[in-house]
Sequence to fold (228 residues):
Amino acid sequence: MNPYTPSEPIPIARQDRTNLVRAIRNDFRSQIECDPTPVTPDPTDFVVSDDPTVRFVAWQVFFLRDDNTAGGFPASKRQWDYFQRLILLLESNSTLKQWEQRRWSLTQPVAVVALVTFLIGVMCFGYVSLLAYPILGFIAILLTQFRNPSELHVPFSEIVYPFDSLQDLAIAYDSTPQFRKTKFPHQSPERVEPNLYLRYWPWMLFAPFVLLIQCGSVSMQKTTVSPG
Fold:
């Protein structure tokens, strides 16, 4: 679906937005103060909201929270700043729309060639070809990077996403005087994010099946924000 095609107004659930912002800030505060008490409500409770912007932020919290901590404290300053922009998105009158897009690229033929070559090797050389299994796993992991490119294509994307531009970000700031960006706490040392190959090492065990999936097209969730 084209996101720019006129459609019904995107609902804004103001109470859900306020409650989600409070839940995220309480989650951060509990980590800074090392408070083991569970945060109620949990930010991920809002994935069923009628407001698509609230649902998007709630899912971002779910996927980006650091699993190594009890409450999901952001693992780096980059993630912390991203959460601040998500809070701005909620506190402003900005609306977010998502749509799905399927994409083909050179990763599909590469996956086909790698998989077919491996299968031919198994038929011709038997179990000896299994020595190439680690190489197959390496290819599968490498293709993952190219199959899942970030949709941050715009200039300065690292400091504006999920907004589409610096101008859109400025509009949201100007329209939300109550928003105050919170600095990354110095008492919480920044942690190194997991290495790509350490994150996907189990795929080495199932490389042929992973490559089979990678022979198909990629389904990507695209987003656009109307600042306000």
Observations:
- The first helix runs from residue 14 to 32.
